[in-house]
Recover the amino acids of this structure.
Protein backbone atom coordinates (compact mmCIF):
# COMPACT_ATOMS: atom_id res chain seq x y z
CA UNK A 1 0.00 0.00 0.00
CA UNK A 2 1.39 3.37 -1.05
CA UNK A 3 1.76 5.79 1.86
CA UNK A 4 3.44 9.13 2.44
CA UNK A 5 3.73 10.87 5.79
CA UNK A 6 5.07 14.36 6.44
CA UNK A 7 6.73 15.29 9.70
CA UNK A 8 8.37 18.39 11.09
CA UNK A 9 8.03 21.24 13.53
CA UNK A 10 4.64 22.88 13.69
CA UNK A 11 6.09 26.27 14.58
CA UNK A 12 9.08 28.06 13.07
CA UNK A 13 10.37 31.49 13.95
CA UNK A 14 10.64 34.14 11.22
CA UNK A 15 13.97 34.13 9.37
CA UNK A 16 14.66 30.57 10.54
CA UNK A 17 14.90 27.39 8.45
CA UNK A 18 12.08 24.91 7.95
CA UNK A 19 12.99 21.23 7.78
CA UNK A 20 10.35 18.71 6.78
CA UNK A 21 10.60 14.98 6.18
CA UNK A 22 8.39 12.86 3.95
CA UNK A 23 8.60 9.18 4.84
CA UNK A 24 7.23 6.91 2.15
CA UNK A 25 6.29 3.25 1.93
CA UNK A 26 4.90 0.95 -0.70
CA UNK A 27 7.05 2.31 -3.53
CA UNK A 28 10.65 3.06 -4.43
CA UNK A 29 12.13 6.55 -4.57
CA UNK A 30 14.43 5.40 -7.37
CA UNK A 31 11.52 4.74 -9.70
CA UNK A 32 9.12 7.48 -8.60
CA UNK A 33 9.40 11.21 -8.04
CA UNK A 34 8.20 13.06 -4.96
CA UNK A 35 6.81 16.57 -5.07
CA UNK A 36 6.18 19.07 -2.31
CA UNK A 37 3.00 21.15 -2.50
CA UNK A 38 1.82 23.72 0.01
CA UNK A 39 -1.51 25.33 0.87
CA UNK A 40 -1.60 28.61 2.83
CA UNK A 41 -4.64 29.09 5.05
CA UNK A 42 -7.72 29.85 2.97
CA UNK A 43 -5.75 29.78 -0.29
CA UNK A 44 -5.09 27.42 -3.17
CA UNK A 45 -2.35 24.88 -3.67
CA UNK A 46 1.14 25.87 -4.78
CA UNK A 47 3.79 23.55 -6.19
CA UNK A 48 7.00 23.91 -4.19
CA UNK A 49 9.38 21.54 -5.92
CA UNK A 50 10.27 17.98 -6.76
CA UNK A 51 12.97 15.37 -6.58
CA UNK A 52 12.94 13.02 -9.56
CA UNK A 53 13.61 9.30 -9.60
CA UNK A 54 17.18 9.88 -10.72
CA UNK A 55 17.82 12.31 -7.86
CA UNK A 56 17.72 15.59 -9.78
CA UNK A 57 15.57 18.40 -8.44
CA UNK A 58 13.37 21.21 -9.71
CA UNK A 59 12.01 24.11 -7.73
CA UNK A 60 9.30 26.73 -7.99
CA UNK A 61 11.14 29.72 -9.42
CA UNK A 62 9.66 32.00 -6.74
CA UNK A 63 11.14 29.85 -3.96
CA UNK A 64 14.27 28.51 -5.62
CA UNK A 65 16.76 30.73 -3.80
CA UNK A 66 15.52 29.51 -0.39
CA UNK A 67 14.77 25.88 -1.12
CA UNK A 68 16.52 22.54 -1.08
CA UNK A 69 15.01 19.09 -1.62
CA UNK A 70 17.03 15.92 -1.02
CA UNK A 71 16.45 12.29 -0.18
CA UNK A 72 17.81 9.21 1.56
CA UNK A 73 16.69 6.24 -0.50
CA UNK A 74 17.90 3.75 2.13
CA UNK A 75 15.44 5.24 4.60
CA UNK A 76 12.71 5.99 2.03
CA UNK A 77 12.74 9.61 3.05
CA UNK A 78 12.57 12.91 1.19
CA UNK A 79 13.63 16.14 2.84
CA UNK A 80 12.57 19.73 2.30
CA UNK A 81 14.60 22.62 3.67
CA UNK A 82 13.49 26.20 3.23
CA UNK A 83 15.42 29.08 4.76
CA UNK A 84 14.60 32.69 5.60
CA UNK A 85 11.03 31.82 6.48
CA UNK A 86 8.41 34.56 6.55
CA UNK A 87 4.80 34.62 7.69
CA UNK A 88 3.73 34.08 4.06
CA UNK A 89 5.29 30.61 4.28
CA UNK A 90 2.68 29.56 6.83
CA UNK A 91 0.87 26.67 5.17
CA UNK A 92 0.08 23.00 5.15
CA UNK A 93 2.93 21.24 3.35
CA UNK A 94 2.10 18.04 1.46
CA UNK A 95 4.37 15.51 -0.16
CA UNK A 96 2.96 13.62 -3.12
CA UNK A 97 4.16 10.84 -5.38
CA UNK A 98 4.38 10.85 -9.13
CA UNK A 99 5.01 7.57 -10.89
CA UNK A 100 2.96 6.23 -13.75
CA UNK A 101 0.38 8.85 -12.81
CA UNK A 102 1.20 12.40 -11.78
CA UNK A 103 0.59 13.12 -8.09
CA UNK A 104 -1.52 10.04 -7.52
CA UNK A 105 -0.89 9.63 -3.79
CA UNK A 106 -0.58 12.30 -1.12
CA UNK A 107 0.37 12.53 2.52
CA UNK A 108 -1.97 14.01 5.09
CA UNK A 109 0.07 17.20 5.24
CA UNK A 110 2.17 18.93 7.88
CA UNK A 111 0.94 22.23 9.27
CA UNK A 112 3.68 24.86 9.53
CA UNK A 113 3.16 28.21 11.24
CA UNK A 114 5.78 30.93 10.97
CA UNK A 115 5.51 33.12 14.03
CA UNK A 116 7.61 34.54 16.82
CA UNK B 1 3.44 29.84 -15.57
CA UNK B 2 0.17 28.37 -16.77
CA UNK B 3 -2.78 29.82 -14.87
CA UNK B 4 -5.74 27.60 -14.06
CA UNK B 5 -9.10 29.33 -13.61
CA UNK B 6 -11.55 27.09 -11.79
CA UNK B 7 -15.30 27.72 -11.50
CA UNK B 8 -17.47 27.93 -9.58
CA UNK B 9 -15.72 28.61 -6.27
CA UNK B 10 -18.71 27.35 -4.35
CA UNK B 11 -21.48 24.98 -5.33
CA UNK B 12 -24.59 23.86 -3.49
CA UNK B 13 -26.50 20.91 -4.90
CA UNK B 14 -28.98 18.22 -3.87
CA UNK B 15 -28.48 14.48 -3.64
CA UNK B 16 -29.00 13.01 -7.11
CA UNK B 17 -28.11 16.23 -8.95
CA UNK B 18 -25.69 16.33 -11.86
CA UNK B 19 -22.79 18.55 -10.90
CA UNK B 20 -20.18 20.10 -13.17
CA UNK B 21 -16.97 21.90 -12.25
CA UNK B 22 -14.77 23.63 -14.79
CA UNK B 23 -11.11 24.48 -15.18
CA UNK B 24 -9.73 26.72 -17.88
CA UNK B 25 -6.03 26.85 -18.66
CA UNK B 26 -4.29 30.03 -19.81
CA UNK B 27 -2.69 28.06 -22.65
CA UNK B 28 -2.94 24.68 -24.30
CA UNK B 29 -2.17 21.86 -21.86
CA UNK B 30 -3.30 19.02 -24.15
CA UNK B 31 -4.85 16.47 -21.78
CA UNK B 32 -2.38 16.93 -18.93
CA UNK B 33 -4.98 17.64 -16.30
CA UNK B 34 -5.94 15.82 -13.11
CA UNK B 35 -8.94 16.24 -10.80
CA UNK B 36 -8.78 15.73 -7.04
CA UNK B 37 -11.19 15.51 -4.14
CA UNK B 38 -10.16 16.79 -0.73
CA UNK B 39 -12.25 16.30 2.39
CA UNK B 40 -11.59 18.34 5.50
CA UNK B 41 -8.48 17.16 7.28
CA UNK B 42 -7.72 14.47 4.69
CA UNK B 43 -5.17 14.03 1.94
CA UNK B 44 -6.26 14.94 -1.58
CA UNK B 45 -7.53 11.96 -3.55
CA UNK B 46 -6.91 11.55 -7.28
CA UNK B 47 -10.20 11.11 -9.15
CA UNK B 48 -9.38 11.66 -12.81
CA UNK B 49 -6.01 11.71 -14.57
CA UNK B 50 -5.08 12.90 -18.04
CA UNK B 51 -8.40 14.72 -18.38
CA UNK B 52 -10.73 11.75 -18.75
CA UNK B 53 -9.26 8.59 -17.20
CA UNK B 54 -10.91 7.34 -14.02
CA UNK B 55 -8.47 6.45 -11.25
CA UNK B 56 -8.76 2.90 -9.93
CA UNK B 57 -11.33 2.57 -7.18
CA UNK B 58 -13.16 5.81 -7.95
CA UNK B 59 -16.93 5.47 -8.50
CA UNK B 60 -18.10 5.70 -12.08
CA UNK B 61 -20.36 8.67 -11.29
CA UNK B 62 -17.19 10.77 -11.57
CA UNK B 63 -16.04 11.60 -15.09
CA UNK B 64 -13.78 14.10 -16.78
CA UNK B 65 -13.74 15.67 -20.20
CA UNK B 66 -11.93 18.29 -22.22
CA UNK B 67 -8.63 18.97 -23.89
CA UNK B 68 -6.54 21.98 -24.81
CA UNK B 69 -7.69 24.73 -22.45
CA UNK B 70 -11.16 23.76 -21.22
CA UNK B 71 -11.90 20.90 -18.87
CA UNK B 72 -14.88 19.64 -16.89
CA UNK B 73 -15.37 17.33 -13.94
CA UNK B 74 -18.85 15.84 -13.79
CA UNK B 75 -20.55 14.01 -10.94
CA UNK B 76 -23.51 12.32 -12.57
CA UNK B 77 -25.60 11.79 -9.42
CA UNK B 78 -24.40 13.57 -6.31
CA UNK B 79 -24.07 11.47 -3.18
CA UNK B 80 -23.74 12.75 0.41
CA UNK B 81 -20.17 11.44 0.63
CA UNK B 82 -19.19 13.69 -2.30
CA UNK B 83 -19.25 16.78 -0.09
CA UNK B 84 -15.68 18.04 -0.40
CA UNK B 85 -13.45 20.54 -2.15
CA UNK B 86 -12.45 19.67 -5.69
CA UNK B 87 -9.45 21.04 -7.53
CA UNK B 88 -7.69 20.61 -10.82
CA UNK B 89 -3.98 20.28 -11.54
CA UNK B 90 -2.25 20.90 -14.86
CA UNK B 91 0.99 19.01 -15.43
CA UNK B 92 1.79 20.00 -18.98
CA UNK B 93 4.56 22.17 -17.54
CA UNK B 94 5.52 23.16 -14.01
CA UNK B 95 2.46 22.12 -12.03
CA UNK B 96 -0.23 24.66 -11.21
CA UNK B 97 -3.56 24.19 -9.52
CA UNK B 98 -7.05 25.57 -9.76
CA UNK B 99 -8.26 27.52 -6.74
CA UNK B 100 -10.79 24.86 -5.77
CA UNK B 101 -14.55 24.36 -5.70
CA UNK B 102 -16.26 23.77 -2.39
CA UNK B 103 -19.23 21.45 -2.91
CA UNK B 104 -21.97 21.34 -0.30
CA UNK B 105 -25.38 19.71 -0.03
CA UNK B 106 -28.43 21.87 -0.45
Amino acid sequence: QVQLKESGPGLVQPSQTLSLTCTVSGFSLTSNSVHWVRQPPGKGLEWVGAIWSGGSTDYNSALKSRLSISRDTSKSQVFLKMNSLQTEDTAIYFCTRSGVRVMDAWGQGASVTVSS
Amino acid sequence: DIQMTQSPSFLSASVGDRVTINCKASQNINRYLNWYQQKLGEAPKLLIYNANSLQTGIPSRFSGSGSGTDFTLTISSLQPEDVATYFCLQHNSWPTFGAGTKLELK
About this structure: Chain B has a mean pLDDT of 97. Chain B touches chain A at residues 32, 34, 41-46, 49, 55, 87, 89, 91, 94-100 (CB under 8 Å).
